[in-house]
Write a structure and sequence with these properties.
There is one protein chain. By secondary structure, the protein is α+β, with helices and mostly antiparallel strands. It has two domains: 130 residues, 3-Layer(aba) Sandwich (Aminopeptidase), CATH 3.40.630.30; 193 residues, Gcn5-related N-acetyltransferase (GNAT) (Aminopeptidase, 3-Layer(aba) Sandwich). The protein has ten helices and 13 strands. Strands 1, 2, 3, 4, 5, 6, 7, 8, 9, 10, 11, 12 and 13 form a 13-stranded mixed sheet that branches. Strand 3 and strand 4 form a beta hairpin.
């Protein structure tokens, strides 16, 4: 006689099951008001369709005890459209947090995802990384935060007596401002609050390289950043002497740090030029920021960032699994995540 499974997995309808899903998130993911706002944006307003969402049911009690999702993300691979799934919002109630419930939920999500997505990828926290490995996801790269100090006084005070810190910090600031000034090459920076057609023109399919690379057109910017209730983005637009946009940086002020969620330039996956980075740093310093911070996949960084003074800090893993696309994404920023 076959023993009935302790848990079963069922596909959810995000619009119908909104309160059920929010109840499973409550106390397990982020702050409740934030997660409600995320749900209405990420699950109900995604231009590429609702995320694939699965629910875990405990058969003995009949209770719903877990949920996991994969949100659609449009990509290009060698000029061909690819639909990827970004893993999001795994939650299992505390009483059911043995390995098997989470494992069975993620196994079912991978199986169902293979029918909809050509690849799946995710950014698990350390506790979930073991589950990802057991299911069959493989390491893709590490998301590495890179930081660039702009005003050195605070950092020097950590290492020198107070009477030396002020002049030393000021001297470092002067040297730092002079060094990249010649790099800007006639480019200029302009801030704007929302994406428009001019920013959309920076993206082109040819700039995506071999991919898979997420499409960063105007529609993406308007949904991922302008409509998001989770972040407050402004765009730093780098223009040439004729006023034509050459690159954009989707930025958020976090105290005195300018955090870059995403970026794109006409150079595409080659990354921004030295001149474009110098223009970014000049604009950030002029706006009063003490530092600039950005996270991107370790395969996306090149020597230009290090030459511009960015230094690697902490990192976290990225996992992926192919369904029908064997080539892994190589350009990843925080913009490729679900928040």
């Amino acid at each position: 006689m076959t023993q009935a499974p302790a848990y079963t997995v069922h596909e959810a309808d995000p619009a119908r099951d909104r309160e059920l899903i929010l109840g499973l998130w409550r106390g397990n993911l982020g702050q409740e008001a934030r997660m409600r706002a995320k749900f209405d944006w990420f699950y109900l307003q995604c231009p590429d369709g609702a995320p694939l969402t699965l629910l875990l049911r405990h058969e003995e009690s009949g209770a719903w005890v877990g949920v996991a999702s994969a949100g659609p993300r449009r990509m290009l691979r060698e000029g061909r459209p690819v639909l990827a799934g970004v893993l999001a919002d795994l939650a299992v109630l505390p009483a059911h947090r043995s390995l098997w419930p989470a494992l069975s939920l993620q196994m079912a999500l991978m199986e169902a995802g293979a029918k909809r997505f050509e690849l799946m990828y995710g950014f698990p926290n350390p506790k979930a990384a073991a589950v990802f490995r057991r299911v069959g996801y493989v390491p893709l790269c590490r998301m590495v935060r890179h930081a660039r100090v702009l005003r050195h006084g605070e950092y020097v005070r950590r290492r020198l007596p107070a009477f030396l810190a002020l002049p030393a910090g000021g001297l470092l600031d002067i040297v730092d401002r002079l060094r990249p000034r010649a790099w800007r090459g006639g480019l200029r920076a302009r801030w704007q609050d929302v994406a428009d057609e001019r920013l959309g023109e920076v993206w082109s399919p040819a700039s995506a390289g071999g991919g898979p690379t997420a499409i960063r057109d105007l529609g993406f910017l308007q949904w991922r950043f302008d409509a998001s209730p989770l972040i407050d983005v402004r765009y730093l637009v780098v223009e040439d002497a004729g006023g034509r946009p050459q690159a954009w940086f989707a930025c958020e002020s976090r105290g005195k740090v300018l955090y870059i969620h995403d970026l794109w330039s006409r150079r595409g996956v080659a990354g921004p030029s030295r001149e474009q980075l110098a223009t970014l740093l000049h604009a950030a310093r002029k706006a009063g920021h003490r530092a600039v911070s950005i996270e991107f996949g370790s395969t996306s960084v090149d020597g230009i960032w290090l030459e511009a003074g960015f230094a690697p800090r902490e990192s976290r893993p990225v996992f992926w699994h192919p369904s029908s696309v064997e080539t892994a994404p190589r350009w990843l920023t925080a913009g490729d995540e679900d928040e």
